[in-house]
Amino acid sequence: xxxxxxxxxxxxxxxxxxxxxxxxxxxxxxxxxxxxxxxxxxxxxxxxxxxxxxxxxxxxxxxxxxxxxxxxxxxxxxxxxxxxxxxxxxxxxxxxxxxxxxxxxxxxxxxxxxxx
Length: 116
Hints:
This protein is an all-beta fold. The chain has no helices and 11 strands. Strands 2, 4, 5, 6, 9, 10 and 11 form a 7-stranded mixed β-sheet that branches. It has a 4-stranded antiparallel β-sheet with strand order 1-3-8-7, with no helix packed on it. Strand 4 and strand 5 (46-52) form a beta hairpin. It starts with a strand and ends with a strand.
């Protein structure tokens, strides 16, 4: 069982920046992939970015260049730096971890509200 706790959400003006963190605890296997997803009101959850324990990153095309994912394997923590946030970026951001032969675990989410 893995527990994920996100932090860092809040209210930000359009064009501003915000950083999110997600700490994983419990029995964690490597290799694994930790990622960030978001869900806007009335929309499906979508991938923002993910990063393997080996350092490979993957971004949704529309956010490349503005969002940066990083992680600290020693702390089992993944980060998301979001720059130049757009008004349409208001969403709940969820952290996830995928391990081989294990179900995907999710955090409870953190709200990011972008004001215009």
